[in-house]
Amino acid sequence: MINFWHNMEPSQILLVEDDPNDVELIQIALSNYNFVNKIDIVYDGEQAVHYLFGRDGQPPTAPLPRLVLLDLKLPKINGISVLQLIREAPRTRNLVVVVMTSSAENRDLQACYDLGVNSYIVKPLDFHQFVEVSRQVGFYWMMLNQLPS
In angstroms, rounded to a whole number, what is the distance separating the alpha carbons of residues 37 and 50? Predict the structure, then answer.
């Protein structure tokens, strides 16, 4: 049995986001807080899969992050497919995945919850609200949410 909790970096976030403006806003929101040591950024679903599962038969090079912030509308492999792969694999099935997307479509929301997403957030359009929501999400999942030891 894979010991998931021992293969995880407790202060690391994986941000899967193709919009550079949203990447910058999330980085701004989390930069002033001590609960994140590292934010790894990938810009499409294929990069996310390589990050989490390795590439060309090679194992992944990074430990699992404590939190994955996942956009849905991604190039190459969409976010719902990435979420499905995460939940199917023993190594990643317990990963905390928060979808942050512009999609308020019920079918996307339902698909994500059917696949076991931990939270689904529609990105606010207002700059200050976006930064505040990003900060709150980071704080909750990195500091308040309890994981087994």
Answer: 21
Length of the chain counted residue by residue: 149
Closest C-alpha among 2, 14, 8 to residue 82:
14
Sheet of 38-42: strands edge to edge?
38-42, 8-16, 64-70, 96-101, 119-122
Please give the C-alpha separations between residue 16 and each of 4, 43, 111, 146, 149, in angstroms, as whole numbers.
21, 6, 18, 23, 26
* Mean pLDDT, residues 39-47: 96
Q: Which of 11-20, 30-39, 89-98, 125-134 is predicted with the least confidence, judged by mean pLDDT? A: 30-39
**pTM across the whole model:** 0.90
What is the DSSP-derived secondary structure letter of residue 123?
Answer: P
